[in-house]
Amino acid sequence: MVKSSSQLEWCIIRLGDDMNWWVEKISNAIHWDMDGLSVIDPNQINHIIDLCESLKDYGFDPEIINEAFFKFRIEKEQKNSLIRLVRVRDSLLESEEQLFALPEIMDEEKGPYADFLDQITKSRVKLLNDLIEFDENLTIDELEEEINARQNNDYFEGRAVHFFNEITAILEYVPDGFELDVGDDSETTQKKELEEFPDIDVIEEKIEEDETMKWDDDTNENEDVIEGEEPIIEKPRRGRPRKK
């Protein structure tokens, strides 16, 4: 995709119909193939970093994230809903600024981004083999074969694969017929969201009654339940590994 290794300093991006960001122009010092060149936005890169947290116990080094991407911040908005980004050298893992990320694909097969994909693939396979009881261990080739098949369908239909989708396809991969038990993840996520926004107070608004309001104290909360029958209470469903 890249045809030169000159210094990259800025790029101009547009929001596509798929609600992802795509590169419209890039600094003249580098001659990029603009067909399907995408940029990962701040929310997406934060989601990727969160997903990578679960891989640290399986050999993944988060520092490779900084090596795998060029980092950008917003410089200004332009006409036609375009945004100009300028290059920064901040850390994606530590910066408090909202940063965009463009994969470092100078060498698509052996470069930093290729190494990043290789690491998350190996670590994801280790995680799945640890958490799911397969008849035979999942292999890297099996994961890559299934993901490539999905992406090829997009190519055949003329759709470019966004870098965010390419990465999350690996980080969220589970073989068909299986599912992970993620019962505690929702609680952890809610707790984390509260910690990230500690100053937000929940305001309960009390409605003052007036003569126009009618309050029926005798309303039967289970009016849909047939008399003499026990109400049906659905139990929450909890995922667990399932063998084919």
- The overall pLDDT average reads 78
Q: Helical segment tally?
A: 6
Q: What is the CA-atom radius of gyration, in angstroms?
A: 24 Å
End-to-end CA span:
39 Å
Give a description of the structure.
- With about 240 residues, this protein is of the alpha+beta class.
- Helix 1 runs parallel beside helix 5.
- The model is unreliable at about 1-5, about 185-205, about 215-225 and about 230-244 (pLDDT under 50).
- It is globular and about 55 Å long.
- A hairpin with a 5-residue loop joins strand 1 (about 10-15) and strand 2 (about 20-25).
- It contains 6 helices and 6 strands, in the order βββααβββαααα.
- The chain has a 6-stranded antiparallel sheet.
- It has a domain at about 10-170.
Q: In brief, what are we looking at here?
A:
With 244 residues, the protein is of the alpha+beta class.
